[in-house]
Structure of Alkaline-shock protein:
Amino acid sequence: MIGNIANEYGYINYSEEVVANIVGVSTMECYGVVGMASKNATDGLWVLLKGESLSKGVKIHNKDESLLIELYIIVEYGTKISVIANNIIQKIKYNVENYSGLKVASVTVNVQGVRV
């Protein structure tokens, strides 16, 4: 379990896969993102992931009751990467905290490629 919340009614436990799916969908909604990137273990190359498995390009760590999120993306050619990264960070932080109630400490965006 990556995170849990306790209240007077009981406990809510979140798996890493659920939070990673929230992050993946939130990332794909941002302008300029072509897809998530996943490292191919055999070749050592980065592979573009479209809609089939968005959580593979996301790594989540739990530290002191908050989440450290790291994601790997491929962006569209001709877009400003810093603006895209800032939009992704704001959207992920808002969506994860709003949907799950878990706190996000940091979001790291790694751009692995540019597609035309």
Q: What stands out?
A: The chain has one domain: 16-115. The chain is about 30% helix and 45% strand. The chain has a mean pLDDT of 87. The longest helix spans residues 81-100.
